[in-house]
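Quick one from the shared queue. A colleague (R.T.) flagged Flagellar P-ring protein as missing a structural entry in our internal table.

Convert sequence to structure tokens.
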Amino acid sequence: MRPLLILLAGIIALCIGLMGPVRAQAMVRIKDIASLQGVRENQLVGYGLVVGLKGSGDSLRNAPFTEQSLQSMLDSLGVNVRENRLRTRNVAAVVVTANMPPFIGKGSRIDVSIASLGDATSLAGGTLIATPLLGADGSVYAVAQGAIAVSGFAEEGQAESLSQGIPTGGRVPNGALIERDLPATFARIPDLVLELKNPDFVTAVRITDTINRHSRERYGVTVAKERDYRTVDLVPPGKISLTRFIAEIESLRVSPDQVARVVVDERTGTVVIGRDVQITTVAITHGNLTVRITETPEVSQPLPFSNGQTVAVPNTSITAAQSGGQLALVGGTDLPTLVRGLNRIGLKPTGIIAILQAIKSAGALQAELVVQ
């Protein structure tokens, strides 16, 4: 009896190996595909000055707002330069932006981004002077100041210049100090609503079922109900704090659904094919046509004693060559089969983009085609 069981186990294992690995859908956390409605960042913006540049700042003649800002700053510090014409190149006017996280309190620090406004060539080595950051309501929520970190550089000589990256933009890590709390708090949120980042009916239902399955096991009640393809309503059970309840919900894992979509970027030759994209079996041929035009001007000399002139006679040679042209079958019910079919043709990304567009026009591409 024991040898028979061993033989049966070996046959089952062999059959599983012949079938190949079973493709499992990716399980992701709810916090990665949905967020609590009303809990969001707020954008801040401000105008300031960067000082300490090595002659790479704004030319005050071409950027009068920089000169006015510099004069106002010096006036506030007790230095009167209104009657003098400033000619420094170590100052640049910049726009400062930042994202204020939700529920952040006074005294916390956030990163800020810096971008030049005038004709400064580089912000490397500069220091941002205290800049108030305003919210959409016009109130000051933070003040930014500190040394700027610039990833790019620009150097120029008399006969050559070298640049890398964008030297007129940078960041100040932890450069803004929060001076005012946001008016809304977590406890004042009227309704707990999960909002999907990629709205989808199937994903919303799966999130609801997963949350209710967890709440029935832990609290004995259902707490979630799908409202539409974008939102899911939550009702706290009352036996746990809101913070701990949301933490439990966000840690649950679901398998999100997605629309079958193909995204192509003709500028860079990028092709992204979604997991559920399918192509009805079609026969494809693609030929590459190359046209070469060569200009080789010739010189025509006049005969001796003919009083003629030497002229250049154009000589143009045009050749055309076409490669490819073999038919290939492409089609598949899953992504690996589809990729193998496209690779069998052996085309460059530009050729694959043209083929995908033609397949879509023929009605064989069972997916949404997005051309960027």
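The chain has three domains: 42-151+164-178, 191-254, 261-296+313-371.
The two ends are 65 Å apart (CA to CA).
Added to the table.
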